[in-house]
Amino acid sequence: METIRIRTLTQQEPFPLALLLEADPEEALVKDYMKRSICFVAEKDGATAGVCALLPTRPGTVELVNIAVTEVYQRMGIGRQLIAHAIRFASEKDFYTMEVGTGNSSIGPLAFYQKCGFRITGVERDFFTNRYAEPIIENGIRCHDMVRLSLDLQGYKENQ
Predict the structure, then answer these.
(1) Local confidence pLDDT in tens for the 160 residues of the chain
(2) Domain boundaries in the chain?
(3) Which of 21, 71, 81, 107 is least buried, going by the fewest C-beta atoms within 10 A?
């Protein structure tokens, strides 16, 4: 079995927009934050298996603004490897907090982020209804609110 290779996407390379849109369907927003983000790609068997993007937001704080794994490679631990890579990167760059936001209807991602050590810190009511042109429905639930989570990078231990 070939291992996963995670690398930083260079500024000259196009970011994998189709895959990023799997996690965030609002193309204009994705294109906007990707201009300012650090993008990592996970490669397996010569193909892009996953992607994640970090956006510095405030001094000492970075936000995981997007993470997606190609359907054929899901449930293989690639998302967890991308998160671990992003955490190591952010820690080495002296960030002390990593934040992430997901929809109230995103039951799988909410569980995933908590398994990776993130804790719920708040809710931005009507985030998706106010910013997205089309309604998002997941798990039979209308996505209205952004659930905010954060991870203290100074206290993080990879083997939680």
Answers:
(1) 458 999 999 888 999 999 999 999 889 999 999 999 999 999 998 899 999 999 999 999 999 999 999 999 999 999 999 999 999 999 999 999 999 999 999 999 999 999 999 999 999 999 999 988 889 999 999 999 999 999 999 876 444 4
(2) 5-152
(3) 71
Encoded tokens for 136: 């998002």
**How far is the CA of 13 from the CAs of 16, 17, 40, 154, in angstroms?**
9, 11, 11, 32
Residues 6+ apart with CB under 8 A from 128: 103, 136, 143, 144, 145, 146
| Contacts (Cβ under 8 Å, ≥6 apart) of 125 | 144, 145
How far, in Å, CA of 23 to CA of 143, rounded? 13
CATH architecture classification, 5-152: 3-Layer(aba) Sandwich (3.40)
Q: Count of CB atoms within 10 A of residue 95's CB?
A: 21
Q: Distance (Å, rounded) from C-alpha 120 to C-alpha 118?
A: 7
